[in-house]
């Protein structure tokens, strides 16, 4: 079992990682004094596969439980879903000390955290991520949001969980496409922060796809540690430090929105976004072609897409203009000067961005 800390003074919290981490959950909830009534937001598949285990853990800790099922889709991240959940919580929460559990992947985590941030001006919540992508990235850091049709994550808040419990045993039930999606975010961490970790993924990605326990636990721990460090130093992305985590996300999010959140899952879109960002870095002379080829080779080896299909350039650019990293009319892109070294660059020419995107068609 590994325990990492996200250091945010009075908002600090632990990340518990390992096989059997879920068994520790009740004890941690009690120690934190989060409440005695758990409102669990999840989807039908997760509840069917893992709901009984979570229910048993909470029952043993004498915590009352109520499951709320939402659709297993990015479309659940909507203001309509939020309104429906809050109406139900209000009816259920009568003189109780209620807290929310986000039990699922990135969609569930984003939605649950946002609901927790606005209900009664904020109630406690914890993350119990069940996908590799959520365990290595989205469950950590307190970014919560829902989507609008114009763009992804336009309505949201920074709201930190009280705990993250990454039970790696859940990953055994993931489909290969979901594993590949999670590895896209892991690749990102190697590209922006740690060249040695990128090299590790080059050597061990096959073991990761086979869910070899030492490898997958190391990947979750390493990514969680890197993310915790970024968040601890720049919680609300005000110092430009945490911005590096958005490598590949500007074009990746635009691609998701332009495709109606149907054609690509998050990791696939981010893989394409990273290739575009790396290509822009090459065109600006920040890296040579060998670095781009190396990134492309690993993304291809993992089984992630290299080409954009079914979405037009005009739609992608339209969605790109809604990116939250714009400062007024100035764009900001996370680029790289080497594997392991990210940099935030402003006012990249639109013509160059378009050329890099077109090179992926």
The helix count comes to: 13
CATH topology annotation of the largest domain: Dehydroquinate synthase-like, alpha domain
- CATH hierarchy, class of the largest domain: Mainly Alpha
Uncertain residue segments: none
| H/E element order | EEHEHEHEHEHEEEHHHHHHHEEH
How far apart are the first and last residues' alpha carbons, in Å?
A: 44 Å
Percentage of residues in strands: 15-25%
Give the tally of β-strands. 11
CATH H-tier superfamily of the largest domain = Dehydroquinate synthase-like - alpha domain
Biggest pleated-sheet summary: 4 strands, parallel
- Write out the strand line-up for the largest beta sheet, numbering strands in chain order: 4-3-5-6
What spatial form do the alpha-carbon principal axes imply?
Answer: globular
Quickly count the domains: 2
**Rg calc:** 20 Å
The average pLDDT score comes to 95
Structural class: alpha/beta
């Amino acid at each position: 079992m590994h325990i990492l800390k996200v250091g945010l003074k009075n908002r600090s919290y632990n990340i518990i990682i390992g096989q059997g981490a879920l068994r520790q959950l009740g004890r941690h909830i009690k120690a934190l004094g989060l409440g005695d009534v758990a409102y669990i937001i999840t989807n039908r598949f997760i509840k069917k596969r893992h709901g009984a285990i979570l229910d048993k853990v909470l029952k043993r800790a004498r915590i009352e439980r109520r499951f709320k099922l939402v659709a297993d889709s990015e479309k659940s991240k909507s203001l309509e879903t939020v309104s429906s959940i809050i109406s139900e919580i209000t009816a259920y929460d009568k003189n109780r000390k209620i807290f929310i559990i986000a039990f699922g992947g990135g969609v569930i985590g984003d939605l649950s955290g946002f609901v927790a941030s606005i209900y009664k001006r904020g109630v406690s919540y914890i993350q119990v991520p069940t996908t590799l992508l959520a365990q290595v990235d989205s469950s950590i850091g307190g970014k919560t949001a829902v989507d609008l049709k114009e763009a992804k994550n336009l309505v949201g808040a920074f709201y930190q969980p009280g705990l993250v419990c990454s039970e790696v045993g859940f990953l055994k039930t993931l489909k290969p496409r979901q594993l590949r999606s999670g590895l896209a975010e892991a690749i990102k961490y190697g590209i922006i922060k740690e060249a040695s970790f990128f090299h590790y993924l080059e050597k061990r990605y096959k073991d990761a796809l086979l869910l070899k326990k030492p490898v997958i636990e190391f990947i979750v721990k390493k990514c969680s540690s890197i993310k915790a460090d970024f968040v601890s130093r720049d919680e609300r992305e005000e110092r430009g430090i945490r911005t590096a985590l958005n490598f590949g996300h500007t074009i990746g999010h635009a691609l998701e929105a332009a495709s109606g959140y149907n054609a690509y899952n998050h990791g696939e879109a981010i893989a394409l976004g990273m290739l575009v960002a790396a290509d822009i870095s090459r065109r600006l002379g920040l890296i040579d072609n060998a670095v781009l080829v190396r990134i492309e080779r690993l993304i291809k080896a993992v089984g992630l897409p290299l080409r954009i299909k079914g979405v037009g350039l005009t739609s992608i650019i339209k969605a790109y203009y809604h990116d939250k990293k714009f400062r007024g009319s100035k764009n900001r892109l996370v680029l790289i000067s080497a594997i392991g070294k990210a940099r935030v660059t402003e006012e990249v020419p639109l013509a160059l961005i378009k050329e890099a995107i077109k090179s992926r068609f």
